Amino acid sequence: MTVRILWSISLLFFGTALPLWASQISCINDDGKPVDWYVLYKFPKHMSHNVAGTGLEYMFMDSLAPIWKPSKYFVNMTESALGQTLQQLYQTYKSEENSTAYVIYNDGPPNKMNYSWTHGHSKGFLLLDQYQGFWVIHSIPEFPPFPEDGYGYPRTGKYNGQIAICITFRYEQFAEIDKQLLFYNPNVYNCSIPKPFQAELLNLQTMCAGAHLPSVPSNQSLIKLLSAQGEILFNFAKTRYDHEDIYIAWMAQKLQTNFLVESWQRKGHRLFSNCSLPYHVYNVNLVGTPWNSSFPSYYDHSKWCVSSRPEDRWTCVGDLNYSPQQAKRSGGFVCTQNQHIYMAFRALVLHYYDCREFQEFTGAAQTSGL
C-alpha cells in the first residue's frame, strides 16, 4: 500500500479535529497558547542586505496561524515558543511526580559533554502524561539545558540558522514513537520514565537506563503518526547500518516526489544534486525570508526538504544533512502534506542547483577515469 493511499484512507477516519485543552501537555506557541504543532526557524547571525542580527531572532508559524511571522521574542527568552514548551518539562522535573515521562537527547549534549559519534545524528525532546504530550525535533547542538539549569540557549547555536518542529500527540502515539526512536538510537542525556509508562515505552526506558538496546528487524522503518488534532504525518527512521542517503535513496523515491533539500553545506561535506533515480534531489543553496533578506546554506544548520512540484506538497523536517558522512548516521524525518506548511517552506527556496551540476560532476569523473 503506497503512502498516497494511506493518506486518503487516513483522512476518512481522522478528518475531524479534536480540541486541545490548556490543562494538557502540548506544544505552546509564542502567545502562550496550546497548539497542535509549530515550526520555529531561527535566523543565522549573518544575513544579506545588511540585515544586522544577534543570531537569536526567529520566524514562527503554528496550527492557529500557519504563515511565517517574525517573533517578538528572542529564542533565548523563556517567553519564546521553545522556552514556554520546555517550561512544562522543567516543571515536571521539579515536581518529581511519576505522572509524566520525558526524554531529552542530542548527539552534541550541553555542559561540555563529549560529542557522540556512535548514536544518531538526532536532537530532540519529548514530554507526556498518560493522555497527551509533545515531541520536539530540532537542529540545535548543546540544547536544551539540563532541567536543573533552567531554560537557556547555547552560544554555539547563535551563528547558524536552526530549526525546531513541535507536534502534540495523544498518548497512544508515543508507543509508535518509542519504536521509531529505537532506529534513531538517540544520545539520551536526561530522562525519566516512571513505572506506569515503562510497558508502553520500553525502548525509551532502556535508553534512559543506559542498557543495551534490542536489535531491530530491519535498517529502516516508516510509520504513519497522527497529531492530537488529526494532522497526518509520516516518520522515516533509519539505523546507522543503512549506508544510503536518506533523501535520494529513500524519502524521494517512497514519496514519489523531487525534493529541494536545505541542510548544512560545509565545504567538502555535501552531496551533489542527484538525478540518477526516478525522483531527484536538488541542493538548495540560498534561503530567502518573507522580508527580503536571505542567507546561504553554508550558514544554515537546519535540515529540511520540500517538494519542487506544488501538486506533491511534501515537507519534511529532521536530523540528517545531505552529506556523504551523514549517510552512515542514524536518524529520521517527519513529513507532512499540510498545504500551509508546504507553501511556507517552498517560498523560502530562492535558488537551488539543478541536475547539470550532477551531470558535470559525473562527466568529469568519467573523463578522468574514476
Structural class category: alpha+beta
DSSP E strands, number: 19
Order of helices and strands: HEEEEEHEEEEHEHEEHEEEEEEHEH
Assembly status:
single chain
* First-to-last CA distance: 40 Å
Major sheet attributes: 9 strands, mixed
User: How many domains is the backbone divided into?
Assistant: 1
What characteristics describe this protein?
single chain, 370 residues, alpha+beta, nine-stranded mixed sheet, 7 helices, globular, disordered C terminus, signal, deoxyribonuclease II, hydrolase, deoxyribonuclease II activity
Written account of the structure:
This protein is an alpha+beta fold. The protein has one domain (about 5-370). It is about 20% helix and about 25% strand. The strands form three sheets. Strands 11, 12, 13, 14, 15, 16, 17, 18 and 19 form a nine-stranded mixed sheet that branches. Strand 11 (about 220-225) and strand 12 (about 230-240) form a beta hairpin. The protein is globular and about 55 Å long. It starts with a helix and ends with a helix. The model is unreliable at about 5-20 and about 360-370 (pLDDT under 50).
Secondary structure blueprint with pairings:
Layout: H1 3-14, E1 27-28, E2 34-35, E3 37-42, E4 58-62, E5 69-70, H2 81-95, E6 101-106, E7 123-128, E8 132-138, E9 162-170, H3 173-184, E10 188-192, H4 202-209, E11 220-226, E12 232-238, H5 246-255, E13 259-262, E14 281-288, E15 294-296, E16 304-307, E17 315-318, E18 331-336, H6 339-346, E19 349-352, H7 355-368
Parallel strand pairs: 13-14
Antiparallel strand pairs: 1-2, 3-4, 3-9, 4-5, 6-7, 6-10, 7-8, 8-9, 11-12, 12-18, 13-16, 14-15, 14-19, 16-17, 17-18
Family: Belongs to the DNase II family.
GO molecular function, one term: deoxyribonuclease II activity
Protein name: deoxyribonuclease II
